[in-house]
Predict the structure of Methyltransferase.
Amino acid sequence: MPNKIPLGHIDECQICSDKNLETILTFGHQPIVQNYLSAEQRHEPETTYPLNFCLCPICGLAQLDYIIDPQLVFPPHYPYRTGLTDMLIRNFRALADNLEQRYQLKSADLVVDIGCNDGTLLEGFKAKGLRVLGIEPTNAAAVANKKNIPTIQAYFNEDVARQAVSQYGKAKIIVMTNSFAHINNLFAIMRGIKLMLDEDGVFISESQYLLDMMATLELDTIYHEHLRFYSVRPLRELFARSGFSLVNAERIAAAGGSIRAYAMKGQRAESPRIEELIAAEKQAGLYDIAAMRQFAAQMIKAKNDLQMLLLSCKNSGARLAGIGSPGRSNTLLNFAKIDPYLLDYICEKSRSPKIGMFTPGMHIPVVDEKKLFLEQPEYALILSWHIGEEMMQLMRKLGYKGKFIMPLPKARVVDNI
């Protein structure tokens, strides 16, 4: 079991340590997706890092082969806020309802969210009268604390776990949503979770699901924050190596398709659903190098088709704007070389801290969405395409009259909503 995965290039699997990682798709060198630039910073050098999507032929884990210092990827000023995304709010409220009913949670029980961001998930548990604790390395922790969600601002490790147990006691529920794929020292994280979790407690992780990534060509979910792209077989291997049992797993719609995994300490009975999901993964070719390279070829074609569609629109004299600037969109913008000559600007909600900044790599200005309704460009590229139907209906309701472009899984123009 690896104790600590080094920063920079890695030549072994993050779960099983096999040294024969297969590169499935290379994106070249890419910037950190949340490193938005000020007007002044555009005139300075910009650092980029290797971005290679790889597969372990032994345990089947899809992963990156380069790890950036987490203090660069998740700095204190990290701009993402969970509470700005309606889809996530709905998902988190449903998760709180689900866990309260499934595990008959009581007021004395403690629920911990590692990587809690602004505390949106824990608000749902607190509203039910449960004790809650967030752990968050960025300044979003201050936002959570202002909501009266007790939050420790720190990068999670075993020392932080001991501090949390000392102050709050053992946790009945520990949750990591997406952040479980973000943290590099995976087995140290599992040791910390083991320290914090009650003997009959449950650890629940939510991560984007490799099977859904393949089905909908989610190439934009591959970026430096996501060190691993989970499927059920490697998750089971990870938990077994950490002294846990994967007791259940389920597919959910969040973030374009995710896997929610339930793990408990020690040897526990496994739901029949685990084997069913692994069989589906095997049938889809998730552990087959040739099948995964075919998937990569489809992603490259999708990128090229999007370039051609945008060029065609631009060459006709049309104006193009983007709607939504999630971090994941910057993989797509940089991989497809979508720059300010193709996309005039990108719109964000009025509260977004990204307004007035420029996207990493391509340097497209981010503006208040009011500009879209005022200028009415002929086309709007939906960069939060995984919630595209919802976004298009909302933009229509707010007054946008032009045509939409959905970038993935197939680039297409949408007029009638």
User: Anything to note?
Assistant: The chain has a mean pLDDT of 93. The chain is about 35% helix and 25% strand.
